[in-house]
Design a protein that fits this description.
mainly alpha
Length: 166
Amino acid sequence: MKLNLTFFALVGIIFLSTTSLKAQTTTDSFTPSHLKAAEQYLIATGINTQFEGIIDNMISASSAQIPEAQRPTFLKVMKVFMSKYYTWDTLKDRFAKLYASELSEVELNQLSTFYNSPIGKKISSKTPLLMQKSMAIGQQTIAVHRSELEQMMKDAFQTIEAPAKQ
């Protein structure tokens, strides 16, 4: 009995390993219709029209960490850089492959149907605002407890540095 369990465990491990390896090596072989379904899903969510606003929000949020005197230059450089490399047009094919690797063509078509429905369009239009408000909630939560976080970091790094000094 022990031999059978060991044998089955070994076969299971080999099977899972080769299945995982196969999944990793075939993720770039999608049918054109699967990739088109992924792109249509992304478009149905409105990401293509909201992309620039999302990027602006990301840049704005990250600029809060920059000293005010350097902020205008930081914003200018980031906008130029992002408009060159991080646009819907430059990334849509990679996003489509990403979604195609995680969702079947049928699932993507079902999601597109949902996002093209009235409730799907509503949630899609509300998502950037909800994300922005969610980030604000997170920032407020951290701000309220900032001193505790700073103390925790200080304590943690003192513990790490203390053995190095000995």
